[in-house]
Amino acid sequence: MTGASGGALLVVGDVVTDVVARHRGPLAVGTDTAASVRRLPGGAGANVACWAAHEGCGDVRLLGRVGTDASAWHERELAACGVRPLLVVDPAAPTGTVICLVDTADSAERTFLTDSGASLRIGPDDWSDALLDGVGRLHLSGYLLFSEPSRTLVSVALSAARARGVPVSLDPASTGFLTALGVDRFLGLVEGVDVLLPSRDEACLLTGLPDAADAAAKLSRHVPLVIVKQGAQGALVARSGAVRARVAAVTASPRDSTGAGDAFTGAFLAALLAGAEPREAAAAGCRAGARAVERVGGRPPRAACRGPADG
Questions:
Q1: pLDDT digit string (tens) for 14-54?
Q2: For the domain with range 8-13+44-89+119-299, which CATH number is right: 3.40.640.10, 3.40.50.2300, 2.70.70.10, 3.40.1190.20?
Q3: Sequence spans of domains, the chain
């Protein structure tokens, strides 16, 4: 499965405000823990879109839902990274917020406290088949599977993409939410997806297998192309029930792992759209993931963003 050169990337997914608190060592329960706290734009879908633009995809579009409280800020932040924001403003719900607790003494591992807000209120009424005009690939954030309106949107978008021959990718997003949703239900909902991009933990959860390679191989019997993101262990490329490639990680000095998987996915999809083979695209994803963990937040550096998107 090679990315056809040309065409836009349409991402449908979450746009949230990240509150990143970087602390060192265990939290002091019942009292204060010193931390560095920053408010940053985030959301798995939005991060993927920004990294795809950063990695050279010339036309990246993002469909998401935000509240009136932060809609203008998020539009500016997306446009500044070369993403065309297609944001629906929800009059009743605030923009989603994620508190990211990052332990700087533990390889920058993070824990999320998630209030999805408006992001999971996106639904089929926010979709139009015209969104696929000029699109070469559609990417769906896995967070869309965790509410009824956005699950319906996934079904509608998948059907529209299949009708047009547009390949679809999906990132499972969260082991916690996957457990609540159920593995069998998840696999049923992603029927028709062309590329699945789970983390190692997500792949093992979805298959019940402890080994990432075995899990990747099993998943590739359900989805044509499976890319398992393994962080410091690189990535696995699986098709037709077998691992076809093992891609080495790029050495990095972690500061914050928030958004590293999104960076991988954005770079991977940009490379596919440019015509790369999956192994080459996975290598691009590993490079982007390494850069992402060396900075705070889930977005690429602003200085490297291309400026406001056209039209």
A1: 999 999 898 988 888 999 999 999 999 999 999 999 999 99
A2: 3.40.1190.20
A3: 8-13+44-89+119-299
**pLDDT for residue 106:** 58
| Cβ–Cβ under 8 Å, residues 66 and 118 | yes
pLDDT tens digits for 134-169? 999 999 999 999 899 999 999 999 999 999 999 999
Which residues neighbour 182 within 8 Å (Cβ) at sequence distance 6 or greater?
none
199 contact partners, CB below 8 Å, separation of at least 6: 172, 175, 228, 229, 230, 231, 261
Q: Are the beta carbons of 20 and 34 closer than 8 angstroms?
A: no
**pLDDT 10s digits, 216-246:** 999 999 999 999 999 999 999 999 999 999 9
93-141 pLDDT, tens digit per residue, is 999 999 989 888 755 677 889 898 999 899 999 999 999 999 999 999 9
